[in-house]
């Protein structure tokens, strides 16, 4: 292909592209086709109340079943999706899909299950984001209490006034809000108190070292203490060992998520997993 192919917006392969550029080129072109090809799927990882063992929610984690490359994790394509703007339709697919999936699970008897969705900053900046979310809830009939958004501090700090007012509107609908990867970004506590976030999520980089690094143990402890005094729930992500869980329990961390309890699972495993398990009513889990 060359320029003479006409006035479309596609970028064409050039033989002198380096390997990285070539891989990106291939990915970008296939990413454009992934939605219509129905190549995205979500895996779900439970969040667990540490003291009761109840499941409080599941987090939806995006995967791309690439026709040639196999199952790709978000780190391999979310940055590209953000650069190309494709994160908007992909993110909309995730929201729609999660709402519809949750309604299906409710019909199968998993009532009051809350599902968390990771949001990219670009999504929140969309003019129609709030309307899109409201529409997805109305169209599927999902209770807003059964929906949660996870958003990083970095995203909030990029445009704090706008983002906080948007998050407050989502909260007003009844949607839960968590701050993801807490402790790794530059959040300012003065911004934190300006909106009614439900949960702080301690980043797994701290969690993985709580037993071996005094600094990481101190940071995790401080986040738990701060969350508790601000009346927020605190969840630790990336819990992989019994020792980490014991540490968190002792510090009175509310919830945990991680391979130690369960890896993310495909949707067909969720109902089986939940059979006989206690689900916490979202109303009381706030
Ligand atoms: P995150 O939201 O912080 O999700 C936690 C990541 O840690 C997930 O990786 C999860 O599979 C992994 N994880 C869970 N438990 C453990 C554990 O015990 N040990 C270790 N080592 N890892 C654990 P994943 O699924 O690859 O997702 C990576 C990131 O991609 C997510 O980080 C999130 O920021 C982003 N992401 C995932 N799905 C979406 C999506 O639908 N939209 C957007 N915009 N971003 C998404
Ligand atoms: Mg997350
Ligand atoms: Mg996280
Ligand atoms: Mg993380």
TrEMBL record:
EAL domain location: 24-278
Highest taxon, organism lineage: Bacteria
Descriptive protein name: EAL domain-containing protein
Species this chain originates from: Geoanaerobacter pelophilus
Covered residues, full protein: 508 to 793 of 793
């Amino acid at each position: 292909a060359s320029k003479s192919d006409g006035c479309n917006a596609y970028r064409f392969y050039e033989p002198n592209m380096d390997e990285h550029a070539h891989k990106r080129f291939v990915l970008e072109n296939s990413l454009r086709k992934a939605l219509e090809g129905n190549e995205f799927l979500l895996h779900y990882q439970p969040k667990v109340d540490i003291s009761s063992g109840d499941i409080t929610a599941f987090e939806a984690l995006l995967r791309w079943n690439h026709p040639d490359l196999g199952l790709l994790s978000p780190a391999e394509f979310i940055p590209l999706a953000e650069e190309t703007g494709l994160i908007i339709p992909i993110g909309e697919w995730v929201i729609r899909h999660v709402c519809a999936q949750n309604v299906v699970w409710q019909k199968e008897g998993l009532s009051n299950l809350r599902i968390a969705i990771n949001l990219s900053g670009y999504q929140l900046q969309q003019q129609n984001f709030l309307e899109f979310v409201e529409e997805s809830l109305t169209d599927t009939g999902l209770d807003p209490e059964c929906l949660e958004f996870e958003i990083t501090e970095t995203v909030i700090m990029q445009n704090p006034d706008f983002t906080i007012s948007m998050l407050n509107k989502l909260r007003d609908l009844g949607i839960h809000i968590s701050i993801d990867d807490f402790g790794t970004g530059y959040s300012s506590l003065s911004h934190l108190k300006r909106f009614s976030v439900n949960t702080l999520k301690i980043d797994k980089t701290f969690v993985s070292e709580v037993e071996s690094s005094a600094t990481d143990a101190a940071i995790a402890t401080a986040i738990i203490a701060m969350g508790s005094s601000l009346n927020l729930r605190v969840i630790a992500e990336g819990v992989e060992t019994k020792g980490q869980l014991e540490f968190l329990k002792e510090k009175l961390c509310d919830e945990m998520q991680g391979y130690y309890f369960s890896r993310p699972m495909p949707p067909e495993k969720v109902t089986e997993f939940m059979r006989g398990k206690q689900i916490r009513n979202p109303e009381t889990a706030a």
